[in-house]
Amino acid sequence: MRIALDAMGTDRAPEPEVAGAIEALRKFESDVEVVLVGDEPTIRAELAKHADVPDRLHIHHAPDRVTADDAPASVIRRKPHSSVVVGLRLQKEGAADAFVSAGSTGAVMATSLFTLKPLPGVDRPAVGTLLPTVGEPCLLIDAGANVDCKPHHLVQFAHLGSTYTRNTLGRENPSVALLNIGEEPGKGSELAVETYDLLAAEPGINFVGNIEGRDIIGGGYDVVVCDGFVGNVLLKFYESVAGLIVSRLHKELDRSQVSEGMEFVFRVLDYAETGGAPLLGVGGVSIICHGESTPKAIMNALAVAARAVRSEMVKHSARDVKGVEVS
Amino acid sequence: MRIALDAMGTDRAPEPEVAGAIEALRKFESDVEVVLVGDEPTIRAELAKHADVPDRLHIHHAPDRVTADDAPASVIRRKPHSSVVVGLRLQKEGAADAFVSAGSTGAVMATSLFTLKPLPGVDRPAVGTLLPTVGEPCLLIDAGANVDCKPHHLVQFAHLGSTYTRNTLGRENPSVALLNIGEEPGKGSELAVETYDLLAAEPGINFVGNIEGRDIIGGGYDVVVCDGFVGNVLLKFYESVAGLIVSRLHKELDRSQVSEGMEFVFRVLDYAETGGAPLLGVGGVSIICHGESTPKAIMNALAVAARAVRSEMVKHSARDVKGVEVS
To answer: Which site among A112, A284, B27, B98 is 20 to 30 Å from B90 CA-CA?
Structure first.
C-alpha cells in the first residue's frame, strides 16, 4: 500500500514529516510505502540529514503550499499544485491508498470532500478523534467538520463511528452514546432530544443512551456522538488542559518517580503524540493531524492510515451507511 | 446579612452544610448570619456533634426535601415545604439576602427563576461558573441553564458576566470572549456568527472576539460566553478530567515534592472545593453548588453569596441590563 504524506503540513515542515515517515517505514510491515508530497528540493534537503533512508520512501513534487490564510473551500481551485490538492489527487487517481496531512484542517477537509466525495448516503462526513480515557479510548465524532447539524446527521455519525471502531479498531459491538447535558431521555437541546429518539429506533447501532461531559473520561463508551461545534470545543479544550498539566508534570517528574496509579496521566501525556483523526464518510482515506505534530505523531498518523487501508474502512463504511435513511 | 443555606442539598446532607456553615461563621465578618433551612431535628442532631456553635447560626424548619426524581419545574408546586422552596421564599420575603444550595441544580434554577423572577430585560438568567486558568479564573456563562439559545440571549449573558466580574469580582473593564471553533469573525455555527456581530456592535461590553476551546486555560479572558449546552458539557468534562488527574496526583505526590511549576495543577486541585456558581439575571442571590460539596466547598459558596450581597450584585445587574435591547 502507498500512503501519500503531505510533507508541507506541520508548522516545522518538512522536518517532522520526513523523520516520521522514515521511522514509520522502519517499523511498519514491508508492504507499506510512503510518498512525501511537497516541494522536491526542500524535501531532498531534509532527507539529506538522514542516513539509511528506506527505499520505500518516495517523493512526489508539489511546489505550492496551503497556508492558514487560504480559505479552505478555495484551495482546490486556487492552489491546484499545493501538497494537499496533489496528495489527495494521487489517491483519486489510484496512485495512493491514503492521504495524511498536518496542514490546515479546514483545507484538508474541504479538499478531501471535493476530491474523494462523500459516500452514498452520507450527507456530512465527520472527523472521528480518539480521546484517551481511563479505559479504552473513545471515538468522539464529529470533532469539528460540521457545525450546524440536524438529528439525522448525528445518526450518520453514529453509523460511521460504529463501523470504524468495529472494523478498523476491532471493537466488538461498539457502544454508541449521545453527548448531552442530562442522562434521561428528553433531556437536553432540541437537537439532542430528537437525535436520542432517532438513535433509539435506528437498527445496526448499539445505542446506550445519553452521557454527560463528565462521563467521557471514565471510559466504557466506544463512540460518543455530538455535533462538530461541541466536539471541536471539547477536543481543543481537552488538548490544552492535558497539554498544560502534562507539560508541568513533565518538568517536575520522571516516569520512574511515579507508580501505576499515574498510568492514566501518562496515557494523556502520550496522547499528545497520538496524532491522526480520520475523516469518516468519504470515498477514501484522509487522516488529519495537528499542525504541531512531532515525528512520532506523524508516524502514528501513518499507522492510522495503514490500519484504515488494511481494514478496508471505506468498503465497510459504504456498506453500513447504504441502509441509512436520509431525510 | 443573612444567608439561607439549604441544609439538605448535598449527597451527605446535612453534614457538609452544617460543618461548612460553622467554619464560615468563624471566618467571615461578624455581620454575616447563616440560616440552615431543612428538617430541624436532623439539623439539631448534626449540630450536636459540634462544640462552640456560633450564635449567628440559625435554623429554619423545612420538613421536605427535593430529590433527583423530582421534575425541576414541578418542585415549587409539589414540594412547597422543601428546603429549596422554603429557603428561596425567605429571600423573597426579606428574611434572607441570599440562598445557597447543593441540591438538584435543575430544581434550584427553576425555583429561583419562579421565586426571584428574571430581572427586567433578561429573557434567560444564566449560570456563571469560574474556571481556573493559568492566570485569573474566567467566568464561563452559561454553564447550563439554557440549552437552546438565540444570539440576543448570548448578548445578555455577556452583560451579566461583565457586571458580575466587574462589580462583584472587582475586575476592571472585564474582557468578554465568544467561545467558538475558529478565531476569525464569520467562523463557527450560525449562532456564533450572529452573536459575534451583535457583540461587536453592543455598547457597554469589552468584546475581544472569538476564542477556541484551547484558549480558555491560558487565561486572559474575564468572561467566556457560550450557550448552556456547550458550557455544561465543557464544565462537566473539565471537572471530571481535573478531578481524575488530580486525584491520581494526590495519591502519588505531596505538595512538598513539587515546585512552583506545578502551581497551576494545584489550583485545579483546589478548584474542586471552589463550589458555588451564581445564577445571574434574577432578582436575588442564588448560588448553586455541587451535590458532592465538601464543608470547604460549602464555606466557599457562602463566601460567594456574601460577596454578591455586599457588592449589590442584583442592583448592578438590573442597572446594566436595563439598556439591553431584547429582540
So the answer is: B27
Please tell me which of the candidates B188, B216, B240 has its beta carbon nearest to residue A147. B188
Map residue A286 onto helix, strand or coil.
strand
Q: With CB atoms and an 8 Å threshold, state whether B189 touches A218.
A: no
Of A213, A218, A244, the CB nearest to B233: A213
What integer is the mean pLDDT of A71-77?
Answer: 95
The two beta strands, B277-280 and B286-288, are antiparallel
Say what percent of chain B tops pLDDT 90. 80
Instruction: Search chain B and give the residue with CA nearest A178.
Output: B233
How do strand B33-38 and strand B57-61 relate by DSSP bridges?
A: parallel
CATH topology of domain A1-122+281-312+321-327: Isopropylmalate Dehydrogenase (3.40.718)
Q: What is the ipTM of this complex?
A: 0.90
Ordered by start, the domain boundaries in chain A are 1-122+281-312+321-327, 124-272
Main-chain phi, psi angles of B183, to 5 degrees? -90, -30
Q: Which CATH superfamily is domain B1-122+281-312 in?
A: Isopropylmalate Dehydrogenase (3.40.718.10)
pLDDT bin (cut points 50, 70, 90) of residue B92 is very high
Measured between CB atoms, does A94 come within 8 Å of chain B? no
**Integer Cα distance of B111 and B60 in angstroms:** 18
Interval A12-49: pLDDT, tens: 999 999 999 999 999 999 999 999 999 999 999 999 99
pTM assigned to the model: 0.92
Output the pLDDT for position B106. Answer: 92
Note whether A248 contacts B264, CB cutoff 8 Å: yes
Residue A309's pLDDT is 98
Residue of B237, B244, B258 with shortest CB distance to A213: B237
For B123-273, CATH gives 3.40.718.10
**Band of the pLDDT at A98, cuts 50, 70, 90?**
very high
Residue that wins the pLDDT comparison between B258 and B188 = B188
Q: Which tops the pLDDT comparison, A260 or B160?
A: B160
DSSP conformation class of B309 = H
Residue position matching grid coordinates 512552583: B260
Burial of B48 (0-12, 13-18, 19+ CB in 10 A): exposed
Cβ-contact B199, B155 below 8 angstroms:
yes
Residue in the structure block whose three cell numbers are 455555527 = B189
Q: Name the packing angle between helices A190-201 and A151-163 (round to 10°).
A: 50
pLDDT at residue A326, as a whole number: 45
The residue type found at B180 is N
Q: Which residues of A touch B244 (CB under 8 A)?
A: 134, 217-218, 264
**Mutate which of B70, B124, B248 to test chain A, going by most A C-beta atoms within 10 A?**
B248
- Under a CB-based contact definition with an 8 Å cutoff, are residues A250 and A269 in contact? yes
The CATH number, out of the four listed (1.10.3720.10, 3.40.718.10, 3.40.50.970, 3.40.50.720), of the domain defined by the range A124-272: 3.40.718.10
Q: Which of B43, B80, B109, B317 shows the shortest CA–CA distance to B204?
A: B317
